[in-house]
Amino acid sequence: MPSSGKVYQWTINIVMLAFTFFCIMPFWLLLSASLTDDMEIIRHGYAFFPKAVSFAAYEYLWTNSANILRAYGITILVTVVGTAVGLTLTALLAYPLSRTEMPFRNILSFYVFFTMLFNGGLVPTYLLYTNYFNFKNTMLALIIPSLLMNGFFVILMRTFFATSIPKPIIESAYIDGAKEWKIFAKIVLPLSTPVLATVGLFYTIMYWNDWFNGLIYITDSRYFSLQNMLNRILLDAQFLQSSTEVVATSDLPLTSMRMAIAAIGVVPLLVAYPFFQKYFVKGLTVGAVKG
Amino acid sequence: MKASKMSVLRLEMRKAKKYRMLVLMTLPGLLYFLVNNYLPMFGIVIAFKDVNFATGIWGSEWVGFKNFEYLFKTKDAYIITRNTLLYNLSFIVLNTAIAISLAILLNEIRKRILSRTYQTLILLPHLISMVIVGYLVLGFLDVEKGFMNKTLLPFFGLEPISWYSETKYWPWILTIVHAWKGVGQLCIIYLASIIGIDQEYYEAAKIDGANRWQQIQMITIPLIAPVITIMTLLAIGRIFYSDFGLFFQVPLNTGVLMPVTNTIDTYVYRALVNMGDIGMSSAAGLYQALVGFVLVLASNAVVRKFNKDNALF
Question: How much is the pTM?
């Protein structure tokens, strides 16, 4: 139905271009700031087109990479483990709830659903995990509280299993004497790659981006994920200085380093984005329109 | 009545025996929700106690509504409620208006590749964490090095502004940042529903001589109205909850900005972590959870009235 008038098309494209520019401009400023010479930043501030380009920030980060690499490692570990376990638990719970034979199906579905409507809040959750489970300053604190499973994704996956897996396939496998476990692993899961990819992607992004668990449960900087480290550096300018091992901190390009660390945190996501965009968009639209 | 209930229970138990593998599969997930979601719900009693760690939470003294009395006696209770509500209201109105306009424009674009590129790029802000957003905003607003103070304001001959200590700018800054991060996602959702509209409506309208603007007004908007209603009502259901990251990271947790950046979520966090005031913090948390719950139920009831299929429950 798009109209073909040339002026019309141009006008629309200009508006869209302006908004798109508004969206990506801050990323550009961040990257160019990380590549600007520190003296230049102090004189002229962060600029979109730096007059003096310098890789000093990245060089310093590269030679002093121990802290950053550890934080990176923790983020990757937490993301991989959290996504794998979370996705497994979600599928294991969603599948039986999609089967009409499942006993107490409605009650259990409501049990999952209610977690989306009401919660005990920060204080009880915090006290539970710190006082009863002793999660403070452990890796588990970055994986388990609030993030591991999400009722919304259980419902989403249950709906997919119930509507997209043909019932006769399951029934005939059942008659052939296949065990429930086998039906799930050999028939249902291979037919469900789209929903597994979408939900897995959202768990991955959630873990990669999470800083909240670290903010409340981690005080020991050795357990900081990349986001927690970024968080500390953002809110406390001294932290970057104190966490680098260089003796002569006076000639550190601290200003551009700060931006370079943030760039290192966001670039992997931006690079991977085109490859997972399809599932990302699917998750956003399915989630919103269908619930 | 009782007998039939008993037999239903017996039937379910028999099914549980027959399908024990299915039951087994659900256990880890059910256990997680029990620990992570249901156990803390019992913790709401903390709001009615004077927590003393020496005697434990359960052994602490009951104080009735004292914590709530203290909370609502402070000015904070009013400020955080006002901030949470007003920010969310303006976010809902502004983001919805921009997202729908952009979705309509995107749908008008003839070159597929251009439209795809725009969609990809406007979703980028949705992908990143609020910590990164904090850095991006700092790039513009840093008092000594920011783009605003060093380049843009001098260009117009204006004096530098100390952004992170003046409250009057923050309602605007936070609204812009929120739109920057959220409009893309909302726009994609509306675009999906616009694409779903049957082309025959437009063909018929063209034959009747309707121009583009009339088609948008008479066909597109009315046909996506249900989606707009639902998205808006869902957002209203969440109006008592704020985006903690937006109000905490973007203003860099700055004390002087708190009159305009403190929301219920940041208040709960600060009362717990900075002041160690468990009573106040849990009272504010329960206040939020209860009002939030009522609002979700209410907005769902309204959605149900419009369209049963679109209701959450």
Answer: 0.92
